[in-house]
Write a structure and sequence with these properties.
This protein is of the alpha/beta class. The chain has two domains: 1-78, no CATH class; 79-293. The protein has helices at residues 8-20, 25-30, 69-77, 114-117, 137-145, 189-197, 199-203, 214-223, 263-273; strands spanning 2-4, 35-39, 43-48, 62-65, 81-82, 103-107, 126-130, 152-155, 177-179, 206-209, 229-232, 244-246, 260-262, 279-282, 290-293. The strands form three sheets. It has a nine-stranded mixed β-sheet with strand order 5-6-7-8-9-10-11-15-14, with helices on one face. It has a four-stranded antiparallel β-sheet with strand order 1-3-2-4, covered by helices on one side.
Length: 294
């Protein structure tokens, strides 16, 4: 249940009224139906304890709950997804533990409370890192070392930064998918070779990436020995029609008209360059991108 108001006092009074209506012996002892009440900036969110957190709930907005502290800890222990990059920037009660996270989206730098709230990453499958740069190398590797079943690593970097060389130095034996689509850098040939020879590149089976010319696509396919799926991101800053793929230059490089390639011609060129067993198509969901099965 959600209730909206911009008046803080009205909102607080309504939250108390809603919460108290579930504190009777009927709900707590007979039905054993426990609720939690969160107050956001303009919203009250009231849910049963068995329901997963909704989009309006944050730990910071916790108002009250009718269950015991142990039961409430069990509720948080069931949380598997953290997709708010600022989630750990807010004050979190010291008794909260998040031990079953499978998807984690986190911005840098990490704060001191992270490892006390997240005692282990044994169930983590997908990790998305935001605001990335080389100064975070040790923090990233610390997470990778504690995530034995991690399969997908996504790194997001601001376009104003040059490529961060630490990207080529990380290790984690379980990672099979690298998502660099939001790593806003267009890889040149040297960088593609470095990636293909890195520990993560050697074991990578699925790669999302931006490149700055078509030859670098073949460089990746021919040098990444375990690659099965490659998705090439197309920049649409200069050309907005779906008939072309714009293989953009980085900030320190000059745009060339030849970087804007007819996408059908590029697909045919790739088919001519790659093995006959490779499949090259437009991405059905993102028509400006190209998918390659090797």
């Amino acid at each position: 249940m959600r209730w909206f108001s911009r008046d803080q006092q009205i909102k607080q009074n309504e939250a108390e009224k809603l919460f108290n209506s579930f504190r009777s012996s009927f709900w707590i002892y007979q039905k054993q139906w426990f609720v939690r009440c969160f107050i956001g900036e303009h919203v009250i969110s009231l849910n049963t304890l068995s329901n997963k957190p909704d989009e309006y709930e944050t730990i910071l907005g916790l108002c009250k709950y009718t269950c015991s502290d142990d039961d409430y800890q069990k509720y948080y222990n069931c949380i598997t997804t953290i997709n708010n990059i600022t989630f750990f920037n807010q004050p979190i009660p010291p008794n909260i533990r998040l031990s079953n996270i499978t998807y984690l989206c986190k911005e840098f730098p990490f704060n001191a409370q992270f490892w006390s709230i997240v005692p282990n990453l044994n169930r983590l499958k997908t990790l998305t890192l935001s605001s990335y740069d080389d100064t975070m190398k040790s923090e990233v590797q610390a997470i990778l070392d504690r995530a034995p079943y991690l399969t997908t690593l996504s790194i997001q970097q601001n376009a104003s930064l040059p490529i961060q060389m630490s990207l080529f130095k990380y290790t984690n034996p379980s990672i099979r998918k690298l998502d660099l689509e939001d790593y806003v850098h267009y890889f040149n040939e040297k960088e593609c070779l470095l990636l293909s020879r890195s520990s993560l590149g050697v074991q990578c089976e699925v790669l999302y990436i931006r490149v700055n010319n078509r030859e670098n696509i073949t460089t990746l396919v021919k040098n990444m020995v375990n690659l099965r799926i490659l998705r090439i991101y197309r920049s649409d800053e200069k050309y907005s029609d779906s008939a072309h793929i714009h293989l953009k230059r980085n900030n320190d490089e000059t745009f060339r008209e030849t970087d804007n390639i007819n996408i059908d011609e590029l697909i045919q060129w790739l088919k001519d360059q790659l093995s006959s067993t490779s499949v090259v198509v437009k991405d059905l969901h993102y028509v400006h991108n190209i998918l390659i099965w090797t």
